[in-house]
Amino acid sequence: MVDRSNEQWLADLKSDGPAKENALADLRATILKGLPYALSNYLSPDNPQFNSLTEEVAQDTLLRVMDHLDTFEGRSRFTTWVQKIAVRIALTELRRRRWRDFSLDSLVEENEDGISFPSLMIDPGPDPDALTQQSDMLQRVARLIDEELTEKQRTAMVATAIEGVPLEEVARRMNMKRNALYKLLHDARLRLKKRLANENLTTEDIWAVFDRG
After folding, report:
1. Does residue 176 sit in the same domain as residue 194?
2. Angle formed by the axes of helices 18-38 and 50-67, to 10°?
3. In terms of domains, do 125 and 181 share one?
4. CA-CA distance, 55 to 81, in Å (whole number)?
5. How far apart are the C-alpha atoms of 59 and 41, rounded to whole Å?
6. Could you tell me the pTM of the whole model?
7. Which is the most buried residue in 148, 171, 204, 205, by most CB within 10 A?
8. Which of 50, 68, 101 is a domain's end point?
9. Do residues 94 and 54 lie in contact, with contact meaning Cβ atoms separated by under 8 Å?
């Protein structure tokens, strides 16, 4: 594998012929090498899904990178930027797959302190301060949801807004009509919006903690 500078990566990937093909192959190998460590808290390499997931993520990452080469600002190593994209794609795919294997009840994990969110919500990265802020924000939002919403509203809200379960699937599992689920979610959002206002917290404040660029 060639040890390229940021400028060399960009030049090779924007070229035609063997240089581009070699760069893509090296970048794919770099992605596959980094994913086992990056996903160690979420999916073991021994899991039967691991190989298919990483192959899919590697391909999707290469396509994403090639479409967004011009957005790379050079503030980090090119491969670090690519790995970050790969991890985001992998976690998104894990979230998408996860809802197929669990009941809606399991999406709202109850413990002695109330509702909690799965660890997949936290974006892995090298910045301990950012991880702490994300964890603290999740706990705060979880507390508000636990205190403000009914059990049915919590289940629907976490499933759709947090876990990304399709509305049709949530309605089916909750034995509700789609319109009834819409109303349930609408009422839940209104209650949360009012509670957030009372806490001097906005949705922009929440998502800013997880927007790591």
Report:
1. yes
2. 130
3. yes
4. 18
5. 22
6. 0.53
7. 171
8. 101
9. no
**Per-residue pLDDT tens digits for 138-169:** 778 788 888 888 989 988 888 887 667 788 88
Of 78, 101, 124, which residue is a domain's last? 101
Number of domains comprising the chain? 2
Closest C-alpha among 60, 38, 53, 44 to residue 124: 38
- Read off the pLDDT of residues 109-138 as tens digits, 9 standing for 90 and up: 444 455 555 544 555 554 567 667 777 777
Angle at 57 (CA atoms; ends 54, 63), nearest 5 degrees: 145
Q: Do 15 and 56 lie in a common domain?
A: yes
DSSP one-letter string for 21-86? HHHHHHHHHHHHHHHHHHTTTT--TTSTTHHHHHHHHHHHHHHHHHHTGGG--SSS-HHHHHHHHH
For 28, the domain range is: 6-101
Q: How far out from the chain centre does Cα 165 lie?
A: 13
